[in-house]
Amino acid sequence: MQREPRAALDFTVDKTAPVLSVSYDNNTANHEFYYKEGRRAEISIEEKNFRSDLVDYSVLKDGGREGHGSALSSFSGGEGRGVSELHHQASISYEEDGDYQFNIRVKDLAGNEALAYPEDHFVIDRTAPGLTISDILNESANKGEVSPKISYGDRYLDQDALSLKLIGEVHGEHELSSQQGGSISIARTDALNLPMQKSMEETESPKQKEEEKEGIVYQSSAGGEEGNLSFQNFPEEPDTDDVYRLSAKIVDMAGNETTEELWFSVNRFGSTYLLSDRAKALQGTYQKEGEEILISEINADEVLSSALTLYRNEEKHALSEGAEYQTTRSGGNGKWYRGDYLIKKDNFDKEGLYHLQISSQDKAGNLASTEQTERGAELRFGIDRTPPRILLSNVDNQGVYRGDALDLDLSVQDNLWLEQVDATVDGTEELSWRDKSLQEAVAKDSFPLQISGEKGKRHKLLVVARDAAGNESRKEVSDFVITNNPLLRLISQKNFARNAAIATVAGLMGLSCVVNGPSLLQELKRRRLKGKRR
Q1: CB proximity list for 247: less than 8 A, separation 6 or greater
Q2: What are the distances in angstroms from CA 374 to CA 34, 162, 191, 277, 311?
Q3: In this structure, how many other beta carbons lie within 10 angstroms of the beta carbon of residue 461?
Q4: pTM, two decimal places
Q5: pLDDT tens digits, residue range 295-314?
């Protein structure tokens, strides 16, 4: 009996699990997993017996909803048993804002499963925080109620990165708490005093205790996705009048940032004054040269008249508009009234202490002046081109002094303000006078310095003095000797070597005349007779 041939069996043995990898084109995260730009995931699978329906993946958005906008693209490389292409790739794009979770499992046709892939969790946030400053207008001058408010929010708000500030031209900069509220003091300090340096009594005066006043009060709260800050009405006190800057910077966890800033003034008692950045830098300093100065005046009402007065030391001079300063006025129609005073550089050509005063009257009858403490705009500075004078009355170059040590009679003076004096002996700094020690030395007109004799060593002294404007003087004395040894003092005399040489030559000539006297006389006589014959 003849057997029928059996059909050949076709099968594949596959014990190798697929190799799965996932990579992203954007790995720049804030706070570990927040991204301010979209991401694209590349899924790569190495498998010869591959079929796409054996790839099980899920993209969940915002805690459970399927991310329909983030679908897996088709795989490249073909499908089926024993495909020629080993590598299969697909991608997923995440462009919408959301909190994403990504899972994936892969099997091949033989049932081998790739190593478990850990779940990806990340947040896409391309939206900047919302921020509003309300109940106050930018560049507004206010003489009624002043109660600004700040409101902000973001789904992923970063509470630690919030920055809320109130900055007054006179009151300075104050960080505002986003959680607890608080109060800002409106107390003022005395006007800046910029004296010439004469005595400790003139430069140091007791500070008066300031009266405690009600501050600028605000309430704030922040939590979750939003926050608020609101001011109570600014106190209706002259000390409250100022030019303010209210700024807010809101940041979310992905690093998106929103900032807003506005300027406003409180003018219930007349004008407030605004120093330019250069004028602020000049305030309370000493300079070698003057410069153009810009000061602005802000008011809720129109300014009808103004006057500028410049003091140099005790001299008073009323500045002439046009010739010595220029005025530019703007504002009204819902904006603050502003006057810019540009004071020309030529007004500060001479050396001395300068003090600039501006006074004005507005349409409501208010009188204001930079001299008023609450205005905080009194500008004082010094011009000084003269270097300090260094006086040393008891030591000279190549001098010789008796004793084991020499107490120097050192005096350093400056026409305005001395800042630092340094004394160096034999290349090593001995003494430096600064701050309090300098003021004491100036008041006594004495800079005590003692130099040791050190067995007749020749010394070198260098004194360097610098004033507050940067002018510098140097005084150097060298080759002086301090000793109690008479012989060393004699040897150290500056003419000792020359006198000793002269004495030696004279002595040798005298000795020569004694020894060779007759022969010398004969030679002189012979030369004289020879000359007569000619």
Answers
A1: 163, 164, 165, 167, 259, 260, 261
A2: 48, 31, 9, 20, 21
A3: 21
A4: 0.69
A5: 999 999 999 999 999 999 98
